[in-house]
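look at this stuff:

>
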Amino acid sequence: MLERLNRSLEYVEERLGDSVDVAEMARIAVTSEYHLRRMFSALAGMPLSEYVRRRRMTVAGAEVLAGRVSLLEIAVRYGYGSGEAFARAFRAVHGVGPGEARRRGAALVSQPRLSFRLTVEGSSSMRYRVVDRPEFTVVGLKARVPLVHSGPNQAIIDFVRGIDPATNERLADLSERSGQEPRGIVSVCDDLDPGRAEGTQLDYYQGVVTSPDALPVAVDGGAEDIVRLPVPAGTWAVFTVSGPAPRAIQELWRDVFVEWFPSNPYRGRPGPEILRTRLSADGTEADAELWLPVEREQKQGQG
């Protein structure tokens, strides 16, 4: 899969002076536009459109500094209808206008070409199952946090540390009484940016899964504000992994979008993404279960 993805990136390089057709990129990568965008964001930490823009401005910047052709010629060469539009795009990437950059010989931002490679480390294995679930509700506490692709997410760490232990105990008790999977305290991500760019905001819940009609009386009266997230009925792909924390969990997210989705007849659908984690006593190892909302892809010719 990575080899096909790299071929689609070669296509980008060939089209920097023209429009980049994402549908053609997906055809080269032998996947859908949806999966291509999700895979790219998961691997690169930025939306595909942002990468194309940065690459286009990187090569345009080299031509600006070279000074061999006019700024308008460069603007037209890279698909801009006017010098003003080119200048705005140039400044957004480099922090300086093309005219000033040429006059001063300014240092510009460079976006290197991306090439993806697969590195296999450790002995973690990914297992999955697909289940149909009736509607349910997530009950817990909520925060707005940035998306972090690699390493600890300090905003989430600070949020979780600030939760009263008594509230966690009451939530855990509610989970036991409801008997809903996944059991115990879970992390829930919702309202993610479609491009999944590093630093974009999402809704993060620390809570439990309950039945739709469950009344969270056990957590009422706490110091924190308890919220409810209704989740409609649907199909879920459930992945389990064991390995070093947090790397095994972050690599699981990557592998699901890069390897599992392109190889299976499912695609993501709107809905929250649920993670249940069990840490070892010293916090270095994790057993995790990831629930992702999916739907079966329709084959061509089917309704």
